[in-house]
Design a protein that fits this description.
The protein has 166 residues and is of the alpha/beta class. The chain has 2 domains: 80 residues, no CATH class; 60 residues, no CATH class. Helix content is 31%, strand content 22%. The protein contains 5 helices and 7 strands; from the N terminus they run αββαβαβαβαββ. The strands form 2 sheets. Strands 1-5-6-7 form a 4-stranded mixed beta sheet. Helix 5 links the parallel strand 5 and strand 6. Helix 4 runs parallel beside helix 5.
Length: 166
């Protein structure tokens, strides 16, 4: 009987899975719309009272996105007040929605990533997964890897899309 040979393992291809870098922790979005007077106006006195009375500890160790779903002009200081209130509890606070939050998280992760282990290697950036890795992260990791890799591909070892070859 012939021995089964794993040709992928022998190929020297390295797979980088961005899900491996996914920060664990709850994601929460805070919508400022309920704090608006008549759904349109932010009253500073009322807003500051809400900031003072809100139990911010419920956001401990969470990643928080702060936005306003209402079509209203929210002054920047309002977002800054929320961020200040959350600073003692949340792991990260961003202005925007949950997609913006994931992009911000991956921007930091990829910026800090040491890619020298991929120097001169043939690398596949794994494409499919179960976690919400933002599409922007794939562009960022490409930009980070291109100066060091021999070749860059996207997908799975059995069906890659070639992107770059030195």
């Amino acid at each position: 009987m012939d021995e089964i040979v794993n040709k992928v393992a022998q190929s020297g291809l390295l797979t980088l899975d961005l899900e491996d870098y996914y920060p664990k922790g709850k994601r929460i979005q805070i919508d400022l719309a309920p704090q608006l007077f008549m759904g349109q106006i932010l009253k500073e006195k009322d807003f500051r009272l809400w900031i003072k009375n809100e139990d911010w500890s419920k956001f401990k160790d969470c990643y928080v996105a702060v936005n306003c779903s209402a079509d209203a002009i929210i002054p920047v200081w309002a977002y800054m007040l929320v961020a200040a209130a959350l600073s003692a509890y949340a792991k990260k606070v961003v202005m925007g929605n949950l997609d913006n939050l994931e992009t911000e998280l991956y921007t930091t992760i990829i910026h800090q990533l040491d890619v020298m282990e991929f120097e001169g290697k043939r690398v596949i950036v794994k494409g499919c997964g179960n976690l919400p890795v933002p599409e922007a992260a794939f562009v960022m990791i490409s930009e980070k890897l291109l100066p060091v890799v021999q070749s860059l591909m996207y997908g799975e070892a059995c069906s890659t899309v070639p992107l770059f070859k030195r």
